[in-house]
Amino acid sequence: MTAIKIGCALMVAGLCLATTGCVFKETYEAEKARSLNFQRLLAQEEKRTAELDSEVKRVKRDAADYEARNRELSAQVQAVREQLARSQEEADSLREAMALQEKAQMQMKRITPPAPSKTKPSELLPPLQESIAKAPEVPDPLMGDSTPVPLDRRTVQHVVKPGDTIFRLSRKYGTSVAKIREWNRLQDDIIEVGQKLIVGME
């Protein structure tokens, strides 16, 4: 009877060990699957992080390129603006010169004297020619010697071009507007294209 009890106890113990072994194996397999899944997720995250880092670097390079292009375009725009300003200034000067020229031409038309007679001296009456030829020359005591006195210095002349003004000529040749008026006997600042002006003394 005792032997039977012992045998039953051994059978029960064997069954328990078998059951426990199955549980341990299933737990090991589950932990192994979880570990593999975690490693796979970690690899995916590392790959995604590398891709994001590469994308950030590319964006930074593009931003630097865009900034350089923006600076270049800004410089080009500034150069175009300066060129437009110079062109506008030249156009204004040209319009001013043309207006002064038209004004001078209108004034010249108003004050132009009648054309002198083209009668040649040979066509004068012979008695008048003879009397003129025989008339003695009377020196003028107030005038003195009429021989021109040569200047010690030579004059610097300038031919007026479109856009020239007395103010610009005075700055160009380092003199004053009053001097240019005095040398050329000008009543105002009106000058004509092609006109020769004294702008200095050597």
UniProtKB/TrEMBL annotation:
<feature type="domain" description="LysM">
    <location>
        <begin position="156"/>
        <end position="199"/>
    </location>
</feature>
<dbReference type="InterPro" id="IPR036779">
    <property type="entry name" value="LysM_dom_sf"/>
</dbReference>
<dbReference type="InterPro" id="IPR018392">
    <property type="entry name" value="LysM"/>
</dbReference>
<dbReference type="Pfam" id="PF01476">
    <property type="entry name" value="LysM"/>
</dbReference>
<protein>
    <submittedName>
        <fullName>LysM peptidoglycan-binding domain-containing protein</fullName>
    </submittedName>
</protein>
<keyword id="KW-0732">Signal</keyword>
<dbReference type="GO" id="GO:0008932">
    <property type="term" value="F:lytic endotransglycosylase activity"/>
</dbReference>
<keyword id="KW-0175">Coiled coil</keyword>
<feature type="coiled-coil region">
    <location>
        <begin position="42"/>
        <end position="104"/>
    </location>
</feature>
<feature type="signal peptide">
    <location>
        <begin position="1"/>
        <end position="18"/>
    </location>
</feature>
